[in-house]
Amino acid sequence: xxxxxxxxxxxxxxxxxxxxxxxxxxxxxxxxxxxxxxxxxxxxxxxxxxxxxxxxxxxxxxxxxxxxxxxxxxxxxxxxxxxxxxxxxxxxxxxxxxxxxxxxxxxxxxxxxxxxxxxxxxxxxxxxxxxxxxxxxxxxxxxxxxxxxxxxxxxxxxxxxxxxxxxxxxxxxxxxxxxxxxxxxxxxxxxxxxxxxxxxxxxxxxxxxxxxxxxxxxx
Length: 219
Hints:
prenylation; 7 strands; 7 helices; 23% strand; Rossmann fold
C-alpha cells in the first residue's frame, strides 16, 4: 500500500508548512495521553484522569531545519473494544508511536499484537517507533531495556525510552519523527538513508549523548 502523502500548506509569508499525521498506540494505561500532554503543553497529568475513549486529537507545530512541521497527533484508546475504531486511522498515518509500560509485562507482551495490527492495517513504509514509557519508575520496572531492544530488532522498528513524568526523551521522540518524515519530501536533507534509517540514526545519537560520562574530572 502506498504511503499517505503529507499535506503542504502556505502560511502567509512564512515558509511552506508540512503536515504529518502521527498516531499513539498501545494498551490502556501505558501513558499515551500523558506523553502527548507533556509534548503539547509541557505538563504532567498526575493522579487519576478519564481514559481516552475512541480517538483524541491535538496539533503542534515545530521547527525542524528552519522548516515548519505541523504534527497532527491522534491519541487512541487502548481498550480492546475500541481497536476496530482505531484500525480505520492506521492507513492515513505517516508515523506510529507504539508505547508500553516498563512496569507492566502484559503491556509489553501485547506489543506483538499491536505490531500485527500495524502490519495488517498501516501502509508498508509507515515509520514505527517502539517506546518504553515510565522509565522513571526504576524500582517497579520489570521490562528491561534489553528486552525492548530485542523485540524492536525482531520487528525492525526503532526503540527508545521515555518518561512522561520527567519529560525524558518526549520532545526528542516527536522531533525525530518529524525530521524523518520531512526527509520523505525534502531532498535537501536526504543523505542516502530511508526515513526509518534516519530515525534510527537520530535515536542512536541521542542515546550516545545521554550515556556519555562527564568529560572533566578533578583529582
